[in-house]
Amino acid sequence: MMQQSKLLFLSIIVLFTQCQPNENIKDHLWPDVKPENKPGIYWWWMGSAVDKENLTYNLESLAEAGIGNVHVIPIYGVKGEEHRYIDFLNPKWMNMLDFTVKEASRLDMNVDMSTTTGWPFGGSHVGSSYAASKIEFEKIEVSGNKRIIKQLPSANIEAVIAYSDDNKIVNLSDKITEDGVLNWLAPIGKWEIYITYKIGTGQKVKRAAPGNIGLVLDPFSPDGLENYLERYNKAFKNYKNIGLRAQYHDSYEYYHASWTNNFYDIFQSKNGYDLRNYLPGLLDSNKINSYIKADYRRTLADLHLDYIEKWTDWSHKKGWITRNQAHGAPANLLDLYAASDIPETETFGSRRFEIPGLRYVVGNNSTSEPPNPLILKFASSAAHVTGKNLIASETGTWLREHYKSSLSQVKPEIDELFFSGINHIFYHGNAYSPKNAAWPGWIFYASTHFEKENAFWYDFSELNTYVTRCQSILQSGKPANDVLLYWPVEDIYHVYPDFLVKNMNVHDTEWFENSEFGKLASLLENKGFSFDYISDKQLLDVSYENKGLVTNKNMYKTILIPKTKHIPLKTWKQLLRLAENGATI
User: Fold this and answer.
1) C-alpha distances in Å from residue 319, one per residue of 313, 323, 325, 388
2) pLDDT tens for residues 185-207?
């Protein structure tokens, strides 16, 4: 599909949204609007200080403005309102959630919730054994035929391994006394002792709500997730038929996490060798082995994918779907987005659109790197390739400073999302606020404020009518992209020697722009081609039928492989099979 198709699409949208049909035939020209056709909104419950009267007031205001989906996110409370706080997941909180879902249903709205408060997963019930952790190491140089006696820290010691200059390896775990003293007589030669520790990151849930202040969960522990979800199982035990639509996992912000319980054993089962025998190649900046580091990173990536898949399976058993913001993870974003029912990207900050008359005052704008449409395509590509209909986006976050955004500035950001394959936007956001709150009501620390107290509120419904019509078309259609662009994530796993893990963020995007993959994606876009990205895992499910490449009933004409140094053997074999069957690669 070339650029002309985009212009045709825009023309159709304009035609439908500008027409004013006779009221008698209006309903026959447009299908019934479903809640998911309408825009959604992040809905912050500050301190969870909600009551039924004001829940109805807030929901009715949002429904009147054209919102069809609310996403409940309990966060920190308002100073001076502590007497109204409700602890997360306690019986009163659950009663408020149940009431919210029923009121939303009355108003023909959907309700999603985060499987936490604030972000990311974590809380008061996360103990140190399942909290996010990192690996730290100490290196000691020892001359041969000398005894080392060293008191080791009380932290969790994962391994103590000695390496000689003539490639001998000695595990010193049995040389540590009960009181934590390493006592070893080094044989002749030069030795380096590597001591690795599992250390908690100490990170706590960001913007946590009352009743859920605590440590962040280990994002590489499916077992830890299972333990974490038990609190939710108990809370929802008496609300089995609650009409929630979805659970939500926010962007990967598990800072500095790089280890998990039993990692050495997990690594060996996945890679066929003992990582403890190669610690210099992983940890020493002067001895880095890219293959060892890639195996380490891939193992963490696989564990985080298992974590997200287990969360999705749990949600399905409860009758809910999931939304996941995969970006930021040190893993294959395409697989992580696809592991949820609704892949979700985000925009943060604003782009400078060359639209005549559109205000762009530098001092009012976020200093964040503006959204890159080619990054947004990771979420839409994962959905297209795996046959998912809804692709969401956190929309308008810190578009401009507080109360300095206009709807004329919001709309082109939304249009760019539509052109990037997004069809299910969620504004960021709206804070629950009681009727009697003084202006400007209860507000979240981050703009943009899509709230009744904002001057643009009374025109907000007009924008949402436009969004609803666009999304109605986009959600009812099928992707029509010609090209599958292979993402060789292994190339990223092999570079960045100064990092243990490399987070693939949605805003700090040098990992994309400096890669051959990113350069080819930019070239395709500039030449007018429309395309989707595809991962190694997803490529294994591609078949060649009727002279086309088929993925979940979507058809493509060709697969493009960027310049790359590392492709898994399974991927090579699949590409060869497809080529032998007649596919163009």
Assistant:
1) 10, 14, 20, 17
2) 999 999 999 999 999 999 999 99
